[in-house]
Amino acid sequence: xxxxxxxxxxxxxxxxxxxxxxxxxxxxxxxxxxxxxxxxxxxxxxxxxxxxxxxxxxxxxxxxxxxxxxxxxxxxxxxxxxxxxxxxxxxxxxxxxxxxxxxxxxxxxxxxxxxxxxxxxxxxxxxxxxxxxxxxxxxxxxxxxxxxxxxxxxxxxxxxxxxxxxxxxxxxxxxxxxxxxxxxxxxxxxxxxxxxxxxxxxxxxxxxxxxxxxxxx
Length: 217
What we know:
By secondary structure, the protein is an alpha/beta fold. It has 6 helices and 7 strands. It has helices at about 5-25, 45-50, 105-120, 135-150, 170-175, 200-215, and strands at about 75, 85, 95-100, 125-130, 160-165, 180-185, 190-195. It has a 7-stranded mixed β-sheet. The longest helix is centred in the first third of the chain and has 22 residues, at about 5-25. The N and C termini lie far apart (about 100 Å). Mean pLDDT is about 85; it is low at about 5-40. Keywords: Cytochrome c-type biogenesis, Disulfide bond, Membrane, Redox-active center, Signal-anchor, Transmembrane, Transmembrane helix. Pfam families: AhpC-TSA. It is found in: Cell envelope. Its main location: other. This is TlpA disulfide reductase family protein.
């Protein structure tokens, strides 16, 4: 008689294990690819955009430009998330500084581009391009940099910035994957050159721009 309870004990255990396995492999969300569904774009706090100091992006021109490798690239502006067109800025040379929030040399270099832009004035349009999907971390870094610069009595960052999550600018320039990279664009939209190294100071930036674009500052 003692063998009957043991039999039912093992039978009950087998049922529990089978039920647990069925639950583990039961389809979730009605699709076997549910885990790969793209998540909604993260909403950015307007206060974070304001704290970053990013300026409004320059307006794209609809006329007077020959097609270039950046002409069809559409990004968003860090200042307000509006569409931005890095290949349609005509009338003057454009300096595109590609960076990412995790890049330490980029962090050091960004204030140098502000210094250079202040020196160059209207002769050159300097635009930063965040080449990583995490826009919020880019804005937070810019805000932190401005806090540091303010404490040091240096000029704060107020350059226009673009969000480039798929690194389209780098790909169009056929530049290497390492950051920072600076892409030098002629007034007609063609790419004159790129510089795949950090700059030492504003004079170093000025020398590269002068050599590739013929603009002295």
